[in-house]
Amino acid sequence: MKAMVVPKHGGPEVLILQDLPDPKPGLNEVLVRVHACALNHLDIWVRQGIPGVSIPMPHVLGSDVCGVTETGDLVVIAPGTGCRVCESCLAGKESFCDRYQLLGFQKKGGYAEKIVADARDVIPVAKGLTPVEWAAVPLVFLTAWHMLVTRAKLQAGETVLIHAAGSGIGSAAIQIAKYLGARVITTASTGVKLGKAKALGADEGVNYSETPLFSKAVMDLTGGRGADVVFEHIGPQTFAESVASLKKEGRLVFCGATSGAQVPLDLRPAYMKQVSIFGSFMGGRGELLHVLKLVESGCLRPVVDSTFPLDQARQAHEKMLSRDVFGKIVLKI
Fold it and tell me: Helix or strand or coil: residue 252?
């Protein structure tokens, strides 16, 4: 089979197309012919190399896989799985499992024509959406749902600030927040992206390229009160301003560190306003099944920016790095 392989850590240029042996399913495993695989920032971090993390080479990236089984079922593969037997897994909190693994990170992923997965991780989906659309769903919608619903407990009528409307997770979070009945303020780097965000349901937009101190804009939009919840996934470029955007007893939930791992934080306003800060990582199987049903019913919808053939994965990575994106970039295979 053809696969886009990372033979060593580095820039997009290290991605090369190779012939690899077809994977053979073992006991309780399913062979999936991959039709589409979406990109995530995780792909970039793994390709570049994560300090302190060893990844066997050559490696195949890709956490968001949609394809067809040998019986003709259209399926997605759960992007993350736990050991299934520990206390966390049995409680439906798989992302707390010490042995939790992600496709394309600890396991070879979907930048390939075929992939083998545990039968329990292969989830049939409706054929009303294309494989490209389905590939744009699992990781970002699961992560955003876990952040907003499970961790931050966003309620109808509350105001949430969602960063980077044009990102895959930002476009997912806007829809989830509106589904929950919240008022959505979002940030983006251009007026065009803010227009697209409003088409997804955002109520207000802040152009952070024009208003880097966006907390003032949030305070103006909330009558000086601040946001009930801030959805943070950027890191040091935005974190201090995100905390400043919160109301008293507000909640900040974060899942990533796109701009770096160390954040500046003045503790005084954080404790004086008695804010809560929640870390969040992926989500459980039940949450994934729930968001897939919401997508099938049309309550949520995937947002695809562009598609590339497998042999142009390098160009797809370069586009993601350019940030000239609204929604997900997907490889058609």
Answer: strand
Q: Which CATH number fits domain 2-137+302-332: 3.90.180.10, 3.20.20.10, 3.30.70.360, 3.40.50.11540?
A: 3.90.180.10
Closest CA to 238 of 161, 175, 171: 161
pTM of the shown model? 0.97
231: enclosing H helix or E strand: strand 227-232
Query: What distance in Å separates the CA atoms of residue 221 and residue 227, rounded to the nearest whole number?
Result: 9
Calculate helix-pair angle for 168-179, 138-145, nearest 10 degrees.
50
Q: Are 300 and 172 in contact (CB under 8 A)?
A: yes
Q: Which two tokens stand for residue 69?
A: 């089984």
| Chain Cα centroid distance, residue 190 | 21
H/E stretch holding 195 reads helix 191-200
In whole angstroms, give the CA distance from residue 233 to residue 248. Answer: 21
Tell me which architecture the domain covering 141-279 has in CATH.
Answer: Alpha-Beta Complex (3.90)
Q: What is the DSSP letter of 118?
A: E
Q: Kindly give the confidence (pLDDT) of every residue in the chain, 333 residues in length, as a single tens digit, with 9 standing for 90 and above.
A: 999 999 999 999 999 999 999 999 999 999 999 999 999 999 999 999 998 899 999 999 999 999 999 999 999 999 999 999 999 999 999 999 999 999 999 999 999 999 999 999 999 999 999 999 999 999 999 999 999 999 999 999 999 999 999 999 999 999 999 999 999 999 999 999 999 999 999 999 999 889 889 999 999 999 999 999 999 999 999 999 999 999 999 999 999 888 888 888 889 989 999 999 999 999 999 999 999 999 999 999 999 999 999 999 999 999 999 999 999 999 999
- DSSP secondary structure string for all residues of 29-43: EEEEEEEEEE--HHH
Where do the CATH 3.90.180.10 domains begin and end in the chain?
Answer: 2-137+302-332, 141-279
